[in-house]
């Protein structure tokens, strides 16, 4: 395909079409029908081969058709979808997709500090990726890299399984480890050292004359030169410790190396904590339902204070009760005082009706008289009340009050 150079009547200029120019007298090019139709048909064939239907008003159909033809010409098994198929093996790949803003945030928070490095900070806020060096107990599952670095160096024995202890820096000065130099010999790395004064003496200037009176500068001294007497001392001054001028800072230790999840702990490090909790292992557990509590056989769930309290009630009045929750059998113990009883049957209502049944009622007369003067009998009991009569003997007076205890559920 080319310009119609072989047709002299077309009027090409420098091998290309030109427009008519009335000013210069330039005659415009003429396109022959054979050449114009051939070019147009060739372009339309390409457009149709690409799955497009030619449209006069659209000007991007040829490009779309060429792309489609190229794409369709590649067998499906030859289409490359990964960098490895293009021979690229050193590209950074990640299962999580990050936005540009998230990547910038990750780069901003990245640090070349290794896990275990200690850094002083002038504020009381612990930066992301660090923990305060405060002697606290931490989970090895949450901070595996730091646990691997510190090990049990600072453990005291009370950390529990799966935990480790951080060193303590609060209120302490840090000193470089002697490491064989001999200035601070015998120290173990990470060991603590008490404060200390370097051994020294103080010289005391003598007076110019002999101390011949008790209150002279040095009593009984010859009065010349310099003397050092261990019994002489100055008045005390100072505080409770020896220290240089200083600035209070918060020492923090690098706890994890990668600022995953935009500065938070890597979720993978928390995976062990998502497992089932047991008596000896941290983890997660479901909240038990009321049915689980009543059954009492599931050791994998936990209960809340509200559930423990559910169904429990108590009244400590003169006529009161103690009701246990259903998961403890629903037992109810009630007590109270009756109206004065006589030889006729009297009914006494419980403070609380038993939901199911009253198992037993016991009652006795409240009287300072001889016990052989009265006889009390419970004649009937229901879930809400009991009947009783009081008989007198040996001259006892009638209408005696009684107290009782009833047990049921």
From TrEMBL:
Question: Which Gene3D superfamilies does the UniProt record give?
Answer: 2.60.40.3940, Phage tail collar domain
Report which superkingdom the organism of origin falls in. Answer: Bacteria
**Per the UniProt entry, what species is this protein from, by scientific name?**
Pseudomonas sp. W17
Record-linked Pfam families = Collar, Gp53-like_C
Annotated Phage tail collar domain ranges read: 116-174
**All residue ranges annotated as the Putative tail fiber protein gp53-like C-terminal domain in the record:** 329-408
Q: What is this protein called?
A: Tail fiber protein
């Amino acid at each position: 395909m080319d310009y119609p150079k072989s047709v002299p009547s077309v009027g090409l200029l420098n091998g290309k079409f030109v427009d008519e120019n009335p000013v210069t007298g330039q005659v415009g090019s003429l396109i022959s029908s054979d050449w114009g139709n051939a070019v147009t048909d060739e372009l339309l064939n390409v457009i149709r081969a690409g799955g497009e239907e030619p449209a006069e008003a659209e000007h991007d159909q040829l490009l779309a058709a060429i792309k489609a033809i190229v794409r369709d010409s590649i067998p499906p098994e030859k289409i490359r979808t990964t960098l490895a198929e293009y021979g690229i093996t050193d590209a950074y790949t990640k299962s999580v997709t990050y936005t540009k803003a998230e990547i910038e945030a990750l780069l901003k928070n990245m640090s070349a500090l290794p896990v275990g490095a200690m850094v002083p900070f002038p504020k009381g806020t612990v930066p992301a990726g660090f923990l305060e060096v405060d002697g606290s107990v931490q989970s090895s599952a949450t901070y595996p890299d730091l646990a691997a670095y510190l090990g049990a160096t600072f453990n005291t024995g009370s950390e529990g399984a799966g935990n480790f202890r951080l060193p303590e820096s609060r209120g302490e000065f840090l000193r470089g480890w002697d490491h064989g130099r001999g200035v601070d010999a015998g120290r173990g790395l990470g060991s603590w050292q008490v404060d200390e004064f370097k051994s020294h003496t103080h010289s005391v200037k003598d007076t110019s004359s002999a101390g011949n009176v008790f209150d002279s500068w040095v009593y009984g001294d010859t009065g010349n030169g310099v003397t050092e007497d261990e019994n002489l001392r100055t008045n005390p001054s100072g505080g409770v410790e020896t220290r240089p001028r200083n600035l209070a800072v918060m020492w923090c230790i690098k706890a994890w190396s990668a600022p995953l999840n935009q500065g938070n702990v890597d979720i993978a490090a928390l995976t062990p904590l998502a497992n089932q909790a047991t008596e000896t292992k941290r983890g997660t557990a479901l909240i038990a339902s009321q049915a689980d509590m009543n059954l009492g056989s599931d050791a994998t769930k936990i209960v809340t204070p509200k559930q423990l309290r559910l169904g429990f009630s108590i009244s400590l009045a003169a006529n009161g009760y103690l009701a246990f929750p259903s998961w403890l059998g629903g037992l109810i113990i009630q007590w109270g005082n009756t109206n004065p009883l006589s030889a006729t049957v009297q009914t006494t209502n419980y403070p609380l009706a038993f939901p199911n049944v009253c198992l037993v009622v016991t009652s006795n007369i409240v009287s300072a008289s001889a016990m052989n003067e009265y006889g009390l009998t419970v004649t009937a009991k229901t879930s809400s009340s009991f009947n009783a009569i009081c008989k007198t003997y040996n001259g006892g007076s009638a209408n005696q009050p009684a107290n009782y205890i009833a047990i049921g559920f």
